[in-house]
Design a protein that fits this description.
- This protein has 13 helices and 19 strands.
- By secondary structure, the protein is α+β, with helices and mostly antiparallel strands.
- A hairpin with a 3-residue loop joins strand 7 and strand 8.
- Strands 7-8-2-18 form a four-stranded antiparallel beta sheet. A four-stranded antiparallel beta sheet has the order 3-4-6-5, with helices on one face.
């Protein structure tokens, strides 16, 4: 009796919890819990496959090393050495004076010993040394670039507010992204694909901009444009700026970026904050360049170029422009999430409409209802009253799967519905094993109580073995599978656990109730 009471309390507690978690998906206004998340194939959304341009990551690394070599040459006062990046990922050092060759080699041995020397030749008194990055270092740089891009994109999407996104690495340099329920696909692509490399560069007002535009570009200078769109006419204008190539400060020192509203013009802007090191650099830059223009450059586009009026302490700055609130918010998101280490290219793009998803849900539920109804009819015809017990356990099994999806905030996909349909068959399979054992015991002349005890006792280990091995396979699929495979594994795992509960506890409790209260002498099985 005590054992029966314990089972009764457990079953009612499980049923109550299942109803609490499944209610919001059936009637959202009835309960404040979260609903079942639908996957990309059920509610529509966007599917992207991105390729990280790891070549650009290598080029950026080589450019950074080249700049470090120049700074060390300046620090060591080694003159007449020209450092250039050639062929994308190689560094060329041209040394004019014979005495500087040994000094340069000593600098390489002390500070840049990881560089690999490819060639060393002397032509007309000019010594040229060509170096590059070793293959093992290249592989590491490419791997880190993909890993960092994956993390940066995940941070951007999390701040964008997409429910249950699926972001994973695919192959060596590709990233798979699935965004269920997203409607503004272009905005999402712009947010994901923006490199978001923030740079601060000085505007060169001493040189002629017109001459530079005609092709007479001074060394160490570049021309970048500020693109503005008139909100009334929708026309865009490009304003050229002659900038010094050297980057004084990057967005690597950013700690925060927020959207603010300008009290004077009532326009949104992005307020940025630097960390302590970035604040010191920014203070030094503004202190050394008072009355000069400092351009704020994002992905080679000038957003603004204000005149520095005084030294700015505190590590705060603002990015202004003719932003809409949405554009300012997206800019703040990409700045907070950090810059991509290399550009990403969209290799594959698919958009699933909500109508297609609704059709998938309807057909999936229809197939589940038909399959479940056939199983219910079969169990009643073949096992009579015992079949009704199995059918009750089956209905609770489906309820528990839905509650598990809502409670764990798992994603239901079309293959997940297939997993539920498979579980319907597996759930009654456990009852079939038990019922056949009970039939064997009753054929030997046992009483209903003894037959049920023996049937459950002998079938329990068999059911546990079969379901545990299936659960292990489902967990492996969940761990290593992607997309549809993972959705199938989720519902299969929940179904296996639910079927163990309903077959071994719920159906046994119903039989105990029938034997104790109805005092039956024969079983309809």
């Amino acid at each position: 009796m005590k054992n029966f009471s314990w089972k009764l309390v457990l079953v009612f507690a499980v049923i109550l919890a299942a109803i609490i978690y499944i209610l919001p998906s059936l009637k959202p206004a009835l309960w404040p819990h979260k609903q079942i998340n639908l996957g990309l194939d059920l509610q529509g959304g966007m599917h992207l496959v991105l390729e990280v341009d790891t070549q650009k990551a290598l080029e950026s690394t080589v450019e950074r090393i080249s700049q470090e070599i120049r700074e060390q040459l300046k620090k060591e006062r080694i003159r007449n050495v020209a450092i250039d990046r050639v062929e994308g990922i190689k560094i060329s050092a041209q040394i004019k004076k014979e005495g500087n060759i040994e000094k340069f080699r000593a600098l390489l041995d002390n500070e840049f010993r990881d560089l690999r020397e490819l060639s060393d030749r002397k032509v007309d008194g000019l010594q040229t040394i060509v170096m590059d990055i070793p293959d093992s270092d290249r592989d590491q740089i490419e791997k880190l670039a993909v890993d960092q891009a994956l993390e940066t994109i995940r941070n951007r999407i999390d701040q964008f507010g997409v429910s249950e996104p699926d972001i994973r690495r695919q192959g060596q340099n590709r990233i798979l992204i699935q965004l269920p329920g997203i409607k503004d696909t272009q905005r999402a692509k712009d947010l994901i694909g923006k490199t978001a490399l923030l740079e601060f560069k000085l505007v060169d007002d001493t040189q002629s901009l017109d001459s530079a535009l005609k092709g007479n570009l001074p060394p160490g200078r570049e021309i970048l444009y500020q693109i503005e769109e008139d909100p009334q006419t929708q026309r865009t204008s490009k304003s050229p700026f002659l900038l010094k190539k050297r980057t004084l400060l990057t967005g690597a020192y950013l700690t925060d970026a927020r959207v603010q509203i300008d009290s004077q013009f009532n326009e949104p802007y992005v307020s940025i904050n630097f960390d302590k090191k970035g604040a010191r650099i920014f203070e030094r830059i503004t202190g050394d360049n008072v009355q000069k223009r400092l351009a704020i450059v994002l992905d080679n586009n000038v957003y603004s170029a204000p005149v520095i009026q005084e030294k700015i302490a505190g590590g705060q700055a603002r990015i202004t422009g003719r932003f809409t609130t949405e554009e300012a918010r997206d800019l703040a998101i990409v700045l907070r999430a950090g810059a991509l280490p290399a550009p990403v290219n969209i290799l594959e793009e698919r958009t699933v409409g909500p109508s297609l998803g609704a059709d998938s849900i309807r057909k999936g539920l229809l197939s589940m209802c038909i399959g479940g109804l056939l199983v219910i009819i079969f169990m009643v015809i073949y096992y009579k009253t015992a079949g009704l017990v199995a059918d009750a356990a089956l209905l609770l099994n489906i309820l528990l799967i839905g509650a598990g999806l809502a409670g764990f905030q798992a994603t239901l996909t079309l293959p997940g519905i297939a997993g539920i349909i498979l579980t319907i068959g597996m759930a009654v399979d456990a009852n079939v094993i038990i019922f056949e054992r009970i039939r064997e015991e009753m054929a030997l002349g046992r009483t209903p109580r003894a037959a049920i005890d023996a049937g459950y006792g002998r079938a329990t280990l068999t059911i546990l073995d079969a379901n545990v091995t299936t659960l292990i396979a489902a967990l492996v699929l969940f761990q290593f599978g992607t997309g549809p495979v993972k959705g199938f594994a989720v519902t299969l795992s929940l179904g296996v656990i639910a079927s163990l509960f309903t077959a071994l506890i719920l159906s046994r409790m119903i039989f105990d109730y029938i034997l104790m209260n109805r005092k039956v002498k024969t079983l309809s099985i």
